[in-house]
Write a structure and sequence with these properties.
The chain has about 625 residues and is mostly beta strands. The protein has five helices and 41 strands.
């Protein structure tokens, strides 16, 4: 499949139109429906959220804690009895609105809250699966989702839950009834602004205020990425921070400071434009479309900044200039943000002047380790789309370690630990088209733009000290094309086709040591891995597969211990919680996401996978609980 920047009807445009054709069928439907008023549940406090990674009866935050480790101290289900895991219930999202289901559910006070495709929310009884209420957001017919009509989850605080919509809104719902409390528009959806990531809650140590944090999506349409902080009670904006250097932020409704240098030297000048910068600067991407992590000790929001716009590196380089002279700040990297003001505290860039859409959005997992001198380092762990795993000091953004987590990386030989920069291999930045031609010479690149790992989050085990990374082994043909910005159209300037690397597998779940870069074990899957990972104290690692299995592995050895066929591909992160003395494992099911739309040969590979939309829950049967406790 070839994506061109300015065709009359690009594959991206056709994909959007396909979504809209289905989406318009629901416009007459009610935006809110309930089966019966739910019993009032207790309000969620900040202390509940701050302890989410320690407690077992709730799952209150995307990432299963502000540290995003996706680690549970539950061990009732373990490597000795997981073979007894059995479906407890499943709930179908119903109707024709299937597509990709990438949501991580949250659980509070006996209720599961799970989002679905096309900006929907379901509240379900956590023990029985009975529907308590449903919210269906009314979507306009000109939304611009790049990579399927997905939603990755909700946040919860007080008596409300919060989620983002495909028409660039953040919505607060009463968690007991599903009724809208407030609805805030943050961008022009016709220009490409949207929201697919889960918002998160943090507490600013300086002011003592709890803030709702969310980002925007839309880099492929030429938006300027923005991170927002809101009052969770009213939805009012507290601050906004753009992630393109030289763009102005806001604080309390007024202009605050520019991001980085006001002259934006990491982007080329162009005296012929109104801004004095190249066209790309006005549409420069950097969208923080995944969920942020939060370090309460240093009072820092840590979030990934997306790819620059357009993908074409030459549009962000001066005429006849060198791409290495223009880093396209603050894109394709990780950012430490002050929660009081929205100011950038530090920034580390994984891919300067990103020519490959490697982005930097993948989750930032907060963990501690001891270095060779025995000193504890408080770090972020990040498996980037560019194929390298990064360990960064979360106090200051300084690189500590970097190593490959997938095979056959071609764009760079390694990451220089002294400079923090990649050492690029020659010929891997696709050349400009020759005079009189509309496309440049094709090069073969690995990883492709879909990444060594994409958005699907990894897990970190506090017992083994290993990261469990759901990666993919593939490559692409890649070439430059002409590019100009047009509102609402794809802003890429690149063509591509994703191809196999190996004949027997694409997906590769790897257990890796973050201090040595050693692969401890690997599990291979024929189809791409697009699901998240969960690790538990029961010496288990859970993930889902493209052909519909939820699987459990021995966390130390990688032995496959259990699997269950759910009926559709899994492209979401599993969770676990405890209720009435029993451990439950839940996962959202329904195939879709970027691979079927953008995957080239990989899209063909996944055509047999059935679509779906449901939430599955498993536990050890009640009659076997005494055995389970042994």
């Amino acid at each position: 499949m070839t994506i061109r920047s300015l065709p009359a009807l690009s594959p991206l445009t056709l994909a959007v139109q396909a979504f809209l054709l289905v989406g318009t069928l629901s416009l007459a439907a009610a935006s809110y429906a309930a089966t019966a008023p739910a019993a009032a549940t207790r309000n969620v406090t900040w202390e509940d959220i701050a302890n989410d990674h320690l407690t077992t009866k709730d799952v209150l935050q995307y990432g299963m804690g502000t540290n995003a480790q996706r680690w549970s101290p539950l061990a009732q289900v373990n490597d000795k009895n997981v073979f007894k895991l059995t479906p407890a219930w499943s709930y179908s999202f119903g109707d024709e609105k299937q597509r990709g289901q990438e949501s991580q559910a949250i659980v509070s006070d006996g209720v599961v809250y799970v989002t679905g495709s096309y900006s929907r929310v379901f509240a379900l009884d956590a023990k029985t699966g009975k529907r308590l209420w449903t919210y269906n957001h009314r979507l306009p017919d000109n939304i611009r989702p790049c990579c399927d009509v997905v939603n990755r989850g909700a946040a919860i605080y007080g008596d409300k839950i919060y989620f983002g919509t495909l028409d660039a809104r953040l919505v607060a719902l009463d968690k007991n009834t599903g009724k809208v409390v407030w609805n805030k528009k943050f961008g022009d959806h016709a220009a490409g602004y949207t929201m697919t990531g889960a918002p998160v809650l943090i507490k600013d140590k300086t002011s003592g205020k709890v803030l709702l944090i969310h980002g925007s999506s839309g880099d492929e349409f030429g938006v300027v990425g923005q991170l927002f902080a809101r009052d969770p009670d009213t939805g009012e904006e507290v601050w906004m921070r753009p992630f393109v250097e030289g763009h102005m932020g806001r604080l309390n409704g007024k202009d605050s400071t520019t991001t980085g240098d006001v002259k934006a030297p990491s982007w080329p000048d162009d005296p012929t434009t109104e801004t004095g910068k190249v066209e790309a600067w006005s549409h420069g991407g950097g969208a923080p479309w995944q969920s942020a992590s939060f370090d309460p000790e240093t009072n820092t929001i840590i979030v990934g900044a997306g790819n620059p716009g357009p993908w074409n590196t030459w549009a962000r380089t001066s005429k006849d200039g060198n791409p290495h002279d223009y880093d396209s700040l603050y894109t394709s990297g990780q950012v430490g943000v002050d929660p009081s003001t929205g100011e950038v505290k530090w920034f580390y860039q994984h891919t300067p002047n990103d020519a490959w859409d490697f982005s930097g959005n993948n989750e930032l997992v907060l963990f501690d380790y001891k270095d060779k001198d025995g000193k504890t380092v408080k770090a972020t762990g990040h498996a980037d789309r560019n194929g390298f795993f990064y360990v960064v000091d979360r106090n200051n953004g300084k690189l500590q370690n970097a190593f490959p987590f997938v095979d056959n990386i071609t764009w760079a030989s390694h990451i220089d630990l002294k400079t923090g920069k990649p050492v690029e291999n020659p010929g891997q930045r696709p050349a400009k088209p020759l005079p009189g031609e509309t496309k440049g010479k094709s090069v073969e690149v690995s990883p492709p733009f879909l990444g060594g790992k994409n958005w699907n989050p990894m897990a970190y085990s506090q017992d083994t000290g290993l990261f469990y990374i759901p990666g993919n082994q593939w490559k692409e043909e890649y070439w430059t094309e002409e590019v100009n910005y047009k509102k609402g159209s794809a802003y890429l300037g690149m063509g591509f086709r994703i191809k196999r690397m190996y004949d027997d597998h694409v997906g590769s779940l790897r257990a890796m040591n973050p201090t040595t870069g050693k692969v401890v074990w690997e599990h291979k899957e024929a189809l791409p891995l697009w699901a998240g990972v969960l690790a538990t104290k029961g010496n288990l690692v859970f993930t889902g597969t493209g052909d519909g299995f939820l699987k459990a592995f021995d966390a130390k050895t990688g032995a496959e211990l259990w699997k269950f066929q759910t009926g559709s591909g899994i492209v979401s992160p599993p969770i676990t919680w405890e209720q009435d003395g029993e451990q439950y494992v839940g996962v959202t099911v329904g195939y879709g996401g970027a691979v079927p739309l953008w995957g080239g040969d990989m899209a063909e590979l996944t055509k047999p996978v059935a679509q779906g939309g449901s939430f599955w829950v498993f536990k050890i049967p009640s009659w076997d609980q005494q055995t389970a406790k042994r």
